[in-house]
Design goal:
The chain is an alpha/beta fold and 421 residues long. The chain has 14 helices and 15 strands. The strands form four sheets. Strands 2-10-9-8-7-3-4 form a seven-stranded mixed β-sheet, sandwiched between helices. Strands 11-12-15-14 form a four-stranded antiparallel β-sheet, with helices on one face. 51% of the residues are buried. The structure holds pyridoxal-5'-phosphate.
Length: 421
């Protein structure tokens, strides 16, 4: 066990909430995680002491701007961005992606090509296909390998060519948990002169994301998936953000990141995101070795990397337990990577279908026992259609996070095993 789960769980007050004495078993994490105490503390402190609009001369506005700068710096540390000015906050990943796709669309001409994948959440598909329609661009689709729900990398290579301008690719699938080889995608796309937009919403809560090591041009995530509040974040290379024209009002600043942060932002959400990053750094500090770097500015990055590696180690154990247990249930099929030697290719989001049960019926039955799992397509429409599961209600998704215990996993597996008609 890489960390003391009791201390981890003590950081999440909602894990102690019961319904008439019945525990809640949160396995709905890919839809949104529980929020860490430091994130809540930052939000309340912001609303109590700093609540003001941006750019004023007076105390609360000056303090508010300083918290917002800290939030940008924290996200730059989490994603290992070169500068906090490469971090854009917004309402959520979907809205930000629509905004960036439209801004990028102004660089496209008819006949240019955009590549999307069938493994992605629709938030990394439709913003691109709609923009393509506006600009007369062509959309090319990358297929998956149906046996293990990984991207077909040979197909990926064949879809990228001289006309490719943008490649949109997920880091980890919200439907079946597959982790994609994003570095290979970036290298292929850049060799063709295309830009890469990475949807890391489902990766950031589970592993160390490093935009400089990946070399990606944009990377999106959502704080409510990594123990913070409902806020979205996009990283973009500074030079690109500087050159792109933002859809913004005239009086607003015209420099990154502010030119993309239109209107008044969710300040308390940004403060809460800062708290979520502080929570992750606390994991690195509490359960990891001492930082090697003497550079104070880089220490938090090191702590965050450590925290995410510790989390990954533990979550692989969760995946192993989940896949092993669920696979033994008669009539149950686990979708995605099930090879226990390839657990590095997945996050602990394990989806299944069960003979004789619609996903909704199974989720309802588990809900009766206060076990929270998702059913349906969870907006990963393309893969459900590709696997021909959309008509039958998609899959049941069991999505674990680092605060789930192995006992909880066993409890879920037993409850699924008891599902009988
Ligand atoms: C992989 C993935 N991408 C994008 C999104 C959309 O994120 P948001 O709710 O922040 O718009 C989600 C949400 O579930 C997701 O799982």
């Amino acid at each position: 066990m890489p960390f003391d789960l009791r201390r981890i769980r003590a950081q999440f007050p909602s894990l102690r909430v019961t319904d008439d004495g019945r525990r809640r078993l949160y396995l709905d994490n890919p839809g949104g995680t529980q929020i860490a105490q430091p994130a809540m503390d930052r939000m309340t402190a912001y609303l109590l002491r700093n609540n003001a609009n941006h750019g004023g001369a007076f105390r609360t506005s000056v303090d508010s701007d300083s918290v917002l700068r800290e939030a940008h710096a924290a996200m730059a540390d989490l994603l290992n961005a070169a500068s906090p000015d490469e971090i854009i906050f917004g309402p959520n990943m979907t809205t930000l992606t629509f905004s960036i796709s439209r801004a990028l669309g102004r660089w496209l001409k008819p006949g240019d090509e955009i590549v999307v994948t069938r493994l992605d959440h629709d938030a990394d598909i439709t913003p691109w296909t709609m923009m393509a329609e506006d600009r007369g661009a062509v959309v090319r689709w990358v297929d998956i390998r149906a046996d293990d729900c990984t991207l077909d990398m040979a197909d990926f290579e064949s879809q990228i060519g001289d006309r490719t301008k943008i490649v949109a690719c997920g880091y980890a699938s919200n439907a079946v948990g597959t982790i994609n080889d994003v570095k290979a995608v970036v290298d292929m796309a850049h060799a063709a002169g295309a830009l890469v937009f990475v949807d890391a919403v489902q990766y950031v809560p589970h592993g160390p994301a490093d935009v400089q090591a990946l070399g990606c041009d944009f990377l999106a995530c959502s704080a409510y998936k990594f123990f913070g509040p409902h806020t979205g974040i996009v990283y973009g290379k500074y030079d690109l953000l500087d050159r792109l024209a933002a859809y913004k009002v005239r009086p607003a600043e015209n420099k990154p990141p502010h030119k993309f942060e239109t209107g008044t932002q969710n300040h308390e959400g940004m403060a809460g995101t800062l708290g979520a990053v502080e929570y992750l750094a606390w994991i690195g500090e509490t359960f990891g070795d001492k930082p090697q770097t003497p550079n104070l500015k880089l220490q938090r990055r090191e702590l965050l990397r450590k925290a995410m590696r510790l989390m990954m180690d533990y979550e692989r154990e969760i995946s192993r337990r989940l896949i092993t247990g669920l696979s033994q249930v008669p009539g149950l099929k686990v979708w995605g990577v099930t090879d226990l030697n390839r657990l590095d290719r997945r996050v602990p989001t394990v989806s299944f279908t069960l003979e004789g049960w619609s996903p909704r019926e199974a989720a309802e039955k588990l809900a009766e026992q206060n076990i929270f799992v998702w059913d349906g397509n969870y907006y990963a429409l393309a893969i459900m259609e590709r696997l021909d599961l959309q008509k039958s209600g998609g899959m049941v998704r069991v999505g674990a996070a680092h605060y789930n215990t192995l006992d909880e996993i066993d409890e879920l597996v037993e409850a699924v095993g008891r599902l009988k008609k």
